[in-house]
Amino acid sequence: MQNAANPTLPGVADGLVGAIGHTPLIRLRRASEATGCTILGKAEFMNPGGSVKDRAGLAIIVDAERRGVLKPGGTIVEGTAGNTGIGITLVANARGYRSVIVMPETQSQEKIDFLRMIGADLRLVPAKPYRDPGNYVHVSKRLAEELGAVWANQFDNLANREGHRLTTGVEIWDQTSGAVDAFTCACGTGGTLAGVSLALKARKPGVRVVLADPEGSGLYGWVKSNDLSISGSSITEGIGQSRVPGNLEDVLIDDAVRIPDAEALEQVFSLLVHEGLSVGGSAGLNVAAAVRVARAMGPGHVVATILCDGGARYQSKLFNPSFLRSKNLPVPDWLE
């Protein structure tokens, strides 16, 4: 007879928290065939909140609970491009907390609508650079202080990367039976890249870790020449930085590649049409970077990357012909 105090059956996730992580690692056929390598995408869009940021939301909340700063009925505040806010809100709902989410008003309408739908107290602010006091990160910090709430601080809170070190990186290692040769990933907070780098390099120091960066971000220059100068712009959301987040400090990164929007979108559309995988812009950028790294390394290698979230979250942008034309980006045939 099942123990009433522990009713979870083997193979059954224990609530929302038990369903976060353990996502499949999918062989990307066309990218693999084009390079002679095995290119693998970790299907983070299969998390309950639809993105890799569910892991960060869970790790940050559990850490705050352990430290005793987040107590029953408490409030957690975060500044986010959207996905971390969704992850935090869902985990907060499941664990009895209130969430207040500060987000730039320029993010996709789908993310805005979803956050409101799941019960976040959403505060939209004008998009401003990090150096401006009105930047969403600074606004969220001040708001947390005013409310006497916990500030998640995903960019500099090392619980973020620690969550990925303990889960995402270990999963990639186990799923490839240690055969992974390289890992590529874009950075917003840096948590995913940092955590996976720490996990993989502890097990196999020769694993090549490559930061994928959009135009309009300074991290490519930081890795290549310690120069955070920025040029250009990108339609991708939630990735790219004008500073080095705390999660990236003291982490081994072997190289960086800069991926223009058109190259990222080519992968987004190819994955959808040819492989049935609907992903967002950052996932397309990550796959484009994996292809570049695979070609540089030569055939026979195993390259893993992150499929951060699904395409439905960007329908009004990435799959909107009018928006794409306004940015001088290619429009796929089926959207014409």
Question: How does this model look, in words?
Answer:
This protein has 13 helices and 10 strands. Strands 1-2-10-7-8-9 form a 6-stranded mixed β-sheet, with helices on both faces. The protein has a 4-stranded parallel β-sheet with strand order 5-4-3-6, sandwiched between helices. Helix 2 packs parallel to helix 12 and helix 3 packs across helix 4. The chain starts with 14 loop residues before the first helix and ends in a 10-residue tail after the last helix. The model has no long low-confidence stretch (mean pLDDT 95).
Number of helices: 13
**Major beta sheet, strand line-up:** 1-2-10-7-8-9
Largest sheet: 6 strands, mixed
Question: What is the share of helical residues?
Answer: 25-40%
Strand content: 15-25%
Net shape: globular
Briefly note the structural class of the backbone: alpha/beta
End-to-end C-alpha gap: 59 Å
Number of beta strands: 10
Summarize model confidence as the mean pLDDT.
Answer: 95
Uncertain residue ranges:
none
H and E order: HEHEHEHEHEHEHHEHEHEHHEH
**Radius of gyration using CA atoms only:** 19 Å
Descriptive terms for the model:
336 residues, alpha/beta, 10 strands, globular
Topology:
Layout: H1 15-18, E1 25-27, H2 29-35, E2 38-43, H3 53-66, E3 75-79, H4 83-95, E4 98-104, H5 109-117, E5 121-125, H6 136-147, E6 150-151, H7 159-166, H8 168-175, E7 182-186, H9 191-203, E8 208-214, H10 219-225, E9 255-259, H11 261-275, H12 281-297, E10 302-307, H13 321-326
Helix pairs in contact: 2-12, 3-4, 3-7, 7-9, 8-9, 11-12
